[in-house]
């Protein structure tokens, strides 16, 4: 995607997020700028990691796709420099397909960021029914990014308090900078008739969940597949409707209660259309899309994310494009991944979101993914060597 969902191209979210889990409300993190400030230590030898040829082959293919972007972007983590990746990227292009493990051994060094204690969730690419031209039964607009949605400082924010990125919003008719339209206003037609519609969805509930994922496919009645990816967000507050349902004690095993899962949430929304619509509007966040033409959803690195190879990270703690090794209590997520995406709730060191592709199986795995264990980040050898004064076991 850019699967950043709400804050960058990334970024969509897992079904656990819908229930108000750590994906949306991560545990408080110490105020640490990046991985370099947190500190890294040498990891074990690659030979000790039980890597498979199949896993290494898929990771190498995704690494090669990432290289053109790695070589031209700055690393927020402070662990690498652009030139550090040059030798590995050059070698990857011509590396023998019969020895993918040899590439990682030859050019990369595992390091542990902080204590390496990892937490991973999952995301996938949903598919929903829709149409190009609005008609009865297919009327929920999928909007492109509106040009007036910009970042600026409101006049009432003193210069002394203007730190970091200014907020998203729009300029009102009187010239004031104000918050952008929230979900309820957009649903009421705030953007209608402006030619921003990419397509229309049959089911507003399905579009709601696709927005949370941040990317997906729209399947039309004539068989056309419209692939859409994250383009931007309205800057308004995200509210986990699953979290609200939990607070309202709507989850449970007894009659009249709903299962604490995506299926339970959808069941509630369908069985209670008025209250369900009001519940969804509590989430003021709205995601805008762009139509994609490639063979996969784009991640924050602007390359296609791949099933069981791409992972979303916090780029302050993992360089985008870097290989990541996970060893979790969810064995299906063990192995090599490439950091190609980000996420609005993927914050802090050793926080990951694994991508599982499209389809029912991907939906099931991603929706139930919640794994803990250890993580290592693979850095170019020159980067690891430069970090050595602080890089001791």
What attributes characterize this protein structure?
393 residues, alpha+beta, Barwin-like endoglucanases, Ribosomal Protein L25, Chain P, 2 domains, six-stranded mixed barrel, six-stranded mixed sheet, 12 helices, 17 strands, 24% strand, disordered N terminus
What does this structure look like?
The chain has 2 domains: 15-119 and 300-390, RlpA-like domain (Barwin-like endoglucanases); 124-291, Barwin-like endoglucanases (Ribosomal Protein L25, Chain P, Beta Barrel). The model is unreliable at 1-30 (pLDDT under 50). The protein has 393 residues and is α+β, with helices and mostly antiparallel strands. It is built from 12 helices and 17 strands.
Level-2 CATH architecture of the largest domain? Beta Barrel
H/E element sequence: HHEHHHEEEEEEEHEHEEHHHEEEEEHEH
The helix content, as a percent range, equals 25-40%
Tally of distinct domains: 2
Number of strands: 17
Spatial arrangement of strands, main beta sheet: 3-16-13-15-14-17
The DSSP helix count reads: 12
Q: End-to-end span in angstroms?
A: 36 Å
Radius of gyration (CA) equals 22 Å
CATH superfamily of the largest domain: RlpA-like domain
Overall 3D shape: globular
CATH class of the largest domain: Mainly Beta
Structural class, by secondary structure, is: alpha+beta
Largest sheet, if any?
A: 6 strands, mixed, barrel
> What's the rounded overall pLDDT mean?
88
Unreliable stretches: 1-30
**According to CATH, what is the topology of the largest domain?**
Barwin-like endoglucanases
**Proportion of strand residues:** 15-25%
